[in-house]
Design brief:
This protein is mainly beta and 96 residues long. The longest helix has 4 residues.
Length: 96
């Protein structure tokens, strides 16, 4: 899967928490060619220094118009669509 991802893929980590053998990472994936990035919670279990299990929860990142609370899902700003054709699609201004 990783080999098929574009070089423009970006991951921003927001929170990392650990307890015992478990680590939870909350972050955003963007730059993979879709109009919305993904906000994800990855949960991994480490055993003897080796990743042994992985679960994740992934959701499309909400725009300002989609947010019921008026707050972004990740960080302090709403996402901006950086695809080369975003202006032609009219979404660049909508997401700002």
């Amino acid at each position: 899967m990783v080999k098929t991802l574009p070089a423009t893929l970006r991951y921003e980590n927001h929170i990392a928490a650990a307890t015992g053998d478990f680590v939870v990472l909350h972050g955003r994936f963007s730059g993979f060619g879709l109009p919305a990035g993904w906000v994800a919670a990855d949960i991994v279990r480490i055993e003897d220094g080796v990743l042994t299990e992985h679960w994740d929860v992934i959701q499309d990142e909400a725009t300002k118009e989609q947010s019921r609370s008026g707050l972004p899902m990740f960080g302090e700003k709403f996402p901006v669509d950086h695809r080369p054709d975003a202006t032609l699609l009219g979404v660049c201004e909508v997401l700002e």
